[in-house]
Amino acid sequence: MASRSANQPDNLPADLTSFVGRRSETQTVRKLLSVDRLVTLTGVGGVGKTRLALRVARDIRRAFPDGVCLVELASLKDPDLLPHTLIDALGIREQSAPAPLVLTDYLRPRHTLIVLDNCEHILEAAADLVDRLLRAAPKLRILATSRQALMIAGEHVYPVPTLPVPDVDVRLAPGSATQFAAVDLFAARGAAVVPGFEITPDNEQAVIQLCQRLEGIPLAIELAAVRLRVLTVEDLAHRLDSRFELLREGSRNLPERHQTLQALIDWSYELCTPAEQTLWARASVFAGGFGLDALEAVCADELLAEEVILDTVAGLTDKSILTRGEHGGRVRFRMLETIREYGQARLRESGSEAKVQRRHRDWYWRLIEKAAAEWFGPGQEAWAALLRVEHPNVRSALEFCLARPDEVRVGLRMAGLPWFLWTALGFMTEGRLWLDRALAMDQEPSLERVWALGTAADIAVFQGDEAAATALIDAVHDLAGRLGDPRGLAYATHMLGLRELGTDPSAAIPLLVEALERYGCADVPADYPNSVRPALTMAYVLSGELDRASEVAEEACAQCEQAGERWLLSYAMWARGFLKLLQGELEQAEADLCEALQLKRFTQDNLGLAFILDALAWTAAASGDSERAAVLLGASDQAWQTIGVPLLGAKHLLARREQFENMARRAMGNPGFDTAFARGGQLTVEEMLTFALREHRVSPVETRQADSLLTPREREVADLVAQGMSSKDVAAKLVISRRTVDVHVEHIFAKLGFNSRTQIATWVAQRRAPESPNR
Asked: Which residues, 6+ apart, have CB-to-CB distance to 303 below 8 Å?
């Protein structure tokens, strides 16, 4: 079973503008989802499929205790990456199993709604994956948007209509036009553009005519409303009308609504300045958003000077071509996918698509190089956040490299250098995918190939894939030796030591010591030698050389602390905590391990999380807190399932786990241990951290206060929910309607500040349990 991160279970974006109309459509789609497990909203681009899907998802989010998740597919080009995109969106942590299997294991027990947005360009892959997920996860529901239906069993297709507009042949009573959603939308967006704008007897007919010509397409209406900054409604309707007639005569083979929207975007494009047109086209190479620095680097040249980019961006933002947002205190921009597709078509027409794509790739290659140079330092957390938000663009850059034989070598470098990107940020399986592809495409001996083989070996070792790790390590060692590459030989020796650590710690020691020496003579970033030291500490510990282990652990901690580094420091603290456990210093062991765990919060490093949870469980068992040990072992077991082999298959560590688990079992008895273990296996990642770190838990006084907030019936419902009953089961037990149960659950959520049924169950258990000083 995979685990999810703290940002779950709801990643729906907030509405930036008012939601106009669609009441009937919203109710219809909600009813469909109550009956059918797959509902696909279809319709022309710009008709509002995404907006309707998000509105429905927000309205029914309370009905999905395990979360509502938006998965945006518009920028995804490679169908093979679809499962990885879902994994990212769901917040699933490290995994080594095939991505579809990770998804099915994660979703099988969960009552979740997934919104798959923009499936049309990867229709076959989307249909296959959706079919597989629905068959494997009986409580899963999927709301998809696509210009075409997925065409799989069980799908209910709902064509999203355009907004109602007044009939051309019907004369309306003055002042009644806003009863039509299209007119109401234009009025709302017009008022946002021109403060004080309203529909009056003087302009009402022109607005009606304009909405009729736009055929009620929401995106078309919104784009047209922007023009009110420079035109009256009458001028707008007149110009738009003549433009559409011209385009219809020249493009009779296109569907009429596509002609209309195409005409509107053409017209919006032509109203842009030449600089805005150029930037619109060039900015379409970005996937998932971009910052101003990236825009200037990728889009500026002799035709579009860098100093005019800022004003040009402002103009495109004013015209609603770019949407502004913020992430991590930095401004980022995005395009609606319809707008981006239009820009891509213009870029192709200009003949400069490959040139701009190469500049895009070069920018993200330089970003990767800079991140690699600065990763071991005080900016690590900021780099982690930036690399996660830029991941769609890194993917796009890698796609560019692997689509062109003469660029694959750069792809090898891009995939091979940032080992921390794949390991620390939760993309190990995807990293293997890119590395395997690039290595297969470019088999010529090169320094880039050496490093890519080394990074692939590193991932294979951490996933417990012994056969692949052995083959890759041998390949690294052989090629680095043939090329006389000291960096590659150091990397190969490092990987050999890691592999031996799992089977023969004593044999690992000389290899890891040699790796440190080789790294010291090679030009490599500091994270490579410092990643050796926690492994060397464990090799000494497992070989019984505790004094040497202590020296190396202290050196590792000092190196990281001096540099302001956090990720490898967490591994060093883990190794030191494990050493303290074996030395019987249990309080210090827990303190070191908790500090290591706290440091994990800014990454998606499930491997480190699993190691630390295990060691904390062993410390709890040694301290006599058997229930805490059982819960932590259940949590670590869940984390290991997302990676591969528990404790990487290291027999000495597995023996320690068995020793401490048996200690806790004897103290609690098998039934009690198994119950606590199962509870740990149901925790989210954030709940694991909260429990393991002994952070705020509801006290008996607080529990009684919270209990008093609920009515007797709500407490009764909470007790049944805590027993694992569904709303249907609770309704049957209490002889009330299912809807009434859902209302009670919503009230419980609101009063207690919860958002999942798991939290209700935990609260009920705490309300019943006596206070324990050790928990």
From this structure: 278
Nearest 5°: the CA angle 158, 162, 164 is 120
By residue count, the chain amounts to: 775
Contact 312, 281 (CB under 8 A): no
Q: Which of left, alpha, beta for 5 (phi over 0: left; psi -120 to 50: alpha)?
A: beta
Is 275:312 a contact under the CB 8 Å cutoff? Answer: yes
> Nearest 5°: phi and psi at 4?
-115, 160
Only one residue has tokens 């692949």, namely 468
Q: For 294, left (φ over 0), alpha (ψ -120 to 50), or beta?
A: alpha
Q: What token pair was written down for 165? A: 């507009």
How confident is the model over 647-678, as pLDDT tens digits? 877 888 999 999 999 999 999 999 999 999 99
Q: pLDDT band at 169, cuts 50/70/90?
A: low
CA distance 456 to 430: 11
CA distance 53 to 56: 5
Kindly report whether the peptide bond that precedes residue 700 is cis, defined as omega within 30 degrees of 0: no
Q: Cβ(333)–Cβ(313) under 8 Å?
A: yes
Structural Rg of the chain based on CA atoms? 29
Task: Say what the pTM is.
Answer: 0.76
Task: Give one DSSP letter per residue of 70-127, joined into a string.
Answer: EEE-TT---GGGHHHHHHHHHTB----S-HHHHHHHHHTT---EEEEE--GGGHHHHH
CA distances from 502 to 453, 542, 552, 593, 654 (A): 20, 10, 19, 21, 10
Q: Which residues contact 200 (CB under 8 A, 6 or more apart)?
A: none
| The pLDDT of residue 23 | 85
φ and ψ at residue 146, rounded to 5 degrees: -165, 150
